[in-house]
Amino acid sequence: MSTLFLSKKDVRSLLNIADVIKAVEQAFKDWALGRAKMPSKAYLVLEQGDFRAMPGAIPGAAGMKWVSVHPQNQPLGLPTVMAIIVYNDPATGYPLAVMDATDITAYRTGAAAAIASKYLARKDSHTLGIVGAGRQSYTQLMAHGELFDLRQIKVFDRRAATVETFIKSFPAYSVRACSLEETVDSDIVCTVTPAREPFLRSEWIRPGTHINAIGADAEGKEELEPSLLKKAVVVVDDLRQAAAAGEINVPVRNRLFAVEEVYGTLGEVIVGKKLGRKDKQAITIFDSTGLAIEDIAVAKLIHDKAKKAGGYLSLDFV
Amino acid sequence: MSTLFLSKKDVRSLLNIADVIKAVEQAFKDWALGRAKMPSKAYLVLEQGDFRAMPGAIPGAAGMKWVSVHPQNQPLGLPTVMAIIVYNDPATGYPLAVMDATDITAYRTGAAAAIASKYLARKDSHTLGIVGAGRQSYTQLMAHGELFDLRQIKVFDRRAATVETFIKSFPAYSVRACSLEETVDSDIVCTVTPAREPFLRSEWIRPGTHINAIGADAEGKEELEPSLLKKAVVVVDDLRQAAAAGEINVPVRNRLFAVEEVYGTLGEVIVGKKLGRKDKQAITIFDSTGLAIEDIAVAKLIHDKAKKAGGYLSLDFV
Question: Is the pLDDT of residue A316 over 90?
């Protein structure tokens, strides 16, 4: 037996947003039906940054994402977030592949949000507003573009150059730089910032809007005014992770929002245990924290494709 | 920057028990002095086996061992236990190396036991008794051979062929197949079995003996009669891990032994916070569960050696 080694370049050549959306939707289903396993993340917190071990298994696949977050990396020319997945055969434990997971993380995050929009946004959604035009925002547009007929995309970021780069990257779409307030006046809004103070005001959001709250993925992070949560239908990817580190974590801690007010998980909506959007006027919010099973589902996809295509580096490793 | 990929063969060519002993002893020191970090292991439990994520950091090194345990692998020609370490730069998170960790695990376990013997066994120890002659026992002999003048080594295993293979592997030593009772009549005893029922009877152990209890590394595993713990000086590698999964886990659960009866950690003994052997007649026991920081210390050693030697596979991975 041998282990595949897939670099960033290899993984990028094998990633395709349509396939990722399918794989991630299936992972959410498996999770809701009790066919997936996902123990709590283990955090290694050091002086200059932290590391997270994210183990997970879905039917036929197991593995672990090991991801580092080092906020001071930029001047060194290194990404803030770097990730590796060890992908194993669940039946024997054999490490079938080791792969860069930086792009996998971005793709599965975009896919999860677009899947949430598919079930929670209005069917006639045609405008997409993206707040924060960094690395994780690109896959928001790619994934939503796959599932929706996007006629207008609005982007806001405090850094004008970042917005410009973003717009140039999508020549096939009608993307426009807007103010924050204009941007969130959209059918679907994705907030993708590292904010620790809520910036999205409740009064700006029209009835019928769906919001994907992507940014908050650690204790203390928060993008939306808590009053917005109160009047919305809130769906999470995982209740335990959302309460600990997602968009709802600060309001829950401050007793401005209760865990019991969460409507359900995305998996429950996908498998029909909970209904998706019922009311054209409702505001819906998807609180995305990022699940290990999303990563493992995409790792399986990449491994299987690489195996089938052949020509990738493979070694007798273990 | 690039990532080193070190296969089982590469790692084996770089492993040296004397260096491993030094690195592991330093890791225990760092742990006792609060200079190391080691969050709880994360367990992914599946039908055919389980996986453990073991993150850890020592000064200048960070990483994670991802280890699988699949008891039914033998008929498939695969090892029961397979492990990979992702070794990172703690300052940036960059994955400096990905390496097979199967041999690293065996070497660091042997080293930890020999270090415990160095501080807890009588200085005039010349006989070593090894119970269980499987994979993990080889490094017990190698590491003790490094630190002690071993004149006689006794081995017991229920499988005669396993004993024979073991003896043949050490032509430079005087190794003899013995009964269980004869084997544990030694200055230093290492128990290295997957037992779930205590087999080592208290009455067999002479005053002045030091025992390394290696086998128990999961809930329900136990090698020594609890009455032996009661009359011995018990030192653990880590109190939390030992109480949950080490030799003391079953007696603690059955209230036959209290966590408070543990004398101290090996790190405390090494740095002098606690004295080592004080009395020639005392029975001492080291309860080894295996620490992530031991793995990271050896990973650093291997990475640094490979880097210096050059010629190993290195890729622009992340």
Answer: no
SS3 A241: helix
pLDDT, residue A92, reads 97
Element at A86 (helix H, strand E)? strand A81-88
- For residue B75, how many other CB atoms are within 10 A of its CB? 6
The answer for A 58-97 residues in CB contact with B (under 8 A) is 62, 64, 66, 68-70, 73, 76, 78-79, 82-84, 86, 88, 90-95
What's the pLDDT at A71?
Answer: 85
Helix axes B17-32, B292-309, angle to 10 degrees: 130
CATH topology of domain A116-290: Rossmann fold (3.40.50)
d(CA A73, CA A81): 9
For B317, the closest of A8, A66, A86 (CB atoms) is: A8
Please state which CATH number belongs to domain B121-290.
Answer: 3.40.50.720
User: How many CA atoms lie within 13 Å of A182's alpha carbon, on the beta-carbon side?
Assistant: 11
Backbone phi, psi, residue A80, to 5°: -65, -45
What is the pTM for the complete model shown?
0.93
Of the candidate CATH numbers 3.40.50.2300, 3.40.50.300, 3.30.1780.10, 3.40.470.10, the domain formed by A3-104+293-315 belongs to 3.30.1780.10
Specify the length of chain B in residues: 318
At B253-311, the pLDDT tens digits run: 999 999 999 999 999 999 999 999 999 999 999 999 999 999 999 999 999 999 999 99
Amino acid B162: pLDDT: 95
**Amino acid present at A110:** G
* Angstrom distances, CA of residue B253 to CA of A78, B14, B195, B196, B220: 48, 41, 17, 14, 9
Q: Residue B249 and residue B246: Cα distance in Å, rounded?
A: 5
**A292-309 and A17-32 are packed helices; what angle lies between their axes, rounded to 10 degrees?**
130
Question: Which residues of chain A lie closer than 8 angstroms to B97, CB-CB?
Answer: none
The C-alpha angle A79, A85, A87, rounded to 5 degrees, equals 165
ipTM: 0.91
Query: Which strand (E) or helix (H) includes residue B25?
Result: helix B17-32
**Which one, of A193, A68, A107, lies nearest residue B318 by Cα?**
A68
